[in-house]
Amino acid sequence: MKNDKLTKELIGIFKKFGLSHNHALISTNALINAELVGAYGHGLSRLKMYCDRIKKKVINPKPKIKIRNISHSVSHIDANDSIGFVAADIGIKQAIKNAKRTGIGMVAVKNSGHYGLSGYYAEQAVKENLITMIYTNAPPAVAPHGALKSLFGTNPICFGTPTGSKIPFILDTSISMINRGKIRVAARNNQKIPLGVALDKFGKPTTDAKKALQGVQLPIAGFRGSGLAWMVDILSGVLTGGNHAGKVKDPFDDFSGPQNIGHLFITFKTNLFVKDYNKRIKDNINRIKKLPKIKGIKEIMYPGQNKYKRFRVNSNKEIKISDIIKKDLEKLKS
Amino acid sequence: MKNDKLTKELIGIFKKFGLSHNHALISTNALINAELVGAYGHGLSRLKMYCDRIKKKVINPKPKIKIRNISHSVSHIDANDSIGFVAADIGIKQAIKNAKRTGIGMVAVKNSGHYGLSGYYAEQAVKENLITMIYTNAPPAVAPHGALKSLFGTNPICFGTPTGSKIPFILDTSISMINRGKIRVAARNNQKIPLGVALDKFGKPTTDAKKALQGVQLPIAGFRGSGLAWMVDILSGVLTGGNHAGKVKDPFDDFSGPQNIGHLFITFKTNLFVKDYNKRIKDNINRIKKLPKIKGIKEIMYPGQNKYKRFRVNSNKEIKISDIIKKDLEKLKS
Q1: Of B1, B44, B30, whose CA–CA distance to B315 is shortest?
Q2: ipTM confidence score
Q3: Any idea which fold B4-176+219-269 has?
Q4: Is the pLDDT of residue B31 over 70?
């Protein structure tokens, strides 16, 4: 493995900050995966933040996570302010277990934190031949339609399904025009962001990533995107017992308490209603890939396909670590 | 009731075309509701189409609808080419029953047809104090990202929840920039459509509704909207045993066979994980409504609120019937 050294280093750091070996491993794997799929806003750029939150006692490194089974299908998890990676890992595993038992699983998690990429957990369910839908909320970043102030998080909608081939279909789309993590990385590296994705704090369009972080991000498709963000806030916050309506704290800026993010994992078997799901989904994808293409497009890609390719290519390389993150690592180790 | 005469007329027409009184009533109520909420593309403008399809034997007026219970939570319905309204009515009622019994319900329907507004069925579940997610596919209208040809339907994403007040939260958003029904109404009335919502058959932007119907509609948010449309096609078509990947026939133009549309209804109790859901959702909505507003915005509305207001206002008026539809009614009655 190309990144064994980095993996060991990260596990060591998380353990130094009080996590068990198992929890350190889960958290490290999630960060490394984010780097390998090219989601740098969810990767090493967040390591210092997680450690800071543990140090300031707003992430609990030794959580007592409670799983309450409401039925054979439905479970509720109180993550006791654990690092989000661990809460989500337990959440998706319980949802997989429930779906295998009854055909359908639903698991709500409360008192969790930022868990990185929804798609990473969706992949776990898809590997077990299940379909999954995952919702989580996030700190205020997007203004509700008609409002002058951010309240919704970038609240991703995630859907995963087996495809009958080795590359899973993983849709993991934030309802903001751009991922907040990407703006954060741009701000750290003094890069510009595209016009039309964010407003500054005065409500004016900006390409300055730092100003965008102080202002509001725009939802996709106006009222429609705003409605989808609201739906995610209800499913992951109101329903689960987590924070909602803008109460999730920004993990980088607000150390006044735990985030209490909620997640919702829905999982179900592919063959509940048809015997030949894998054949059907293969046909579906093939038919769409065979459509006439717009000039310049080589292949019509399904969601998750590009990410998978990036993962395969990057897995054979050493992860590039920027100078800023090198400094983070040195400080955190010492 | 202001529209009793029209209601009787429609029931009479559906019965004349072979529907039972009960199925005629279900179908009539759905059409009248679409008119009252102002969704004219799903209202009387479709009556003639439904009757034509019955006459040409691609809708079965006397369906033998089979419900197969896979578990106490999960059911599969074969609608036997019934009119979509009836299949969806049975589908949502079964999903409500399953959720009341076990906390969560999932009902897939196959061999159905166009059922009008997803939100109409979501309201039924919300009235029973359940949260619901509804997916259905539709004939090709939107080009997958990168493709030059329509394949996805306008594939709505629908989510409904009780709000602790009398006006339900019903998000019912198609993933196209504009509802296909609206383009159809514009085409019938020789009205223009906004720029940027559709391309003509040569791939050029158009404001001509008739040219748009021959061309492709654009998804919201590019790759993201295309991914959401694909998700809906999988959930409502691939999973259920319904048609998918562009095989759903256009109900107005293609009488070569039944549509075999699939629907998926997911329902669950609001209090699975929290005791005070109604209070929590009320707090959520109130907090969002209190945000500072953009100049000119009087109130931040949640999805479904405007529709509910239109319904209340329009229920006290007689439905206006255009000359084209008057002609339809006369012909269908005689």
Answers
A1: B1
A2: 0.94
A3: Ribosomal Protein S8; Chain: A, domain 1 (3.30.1370)
A4: yes
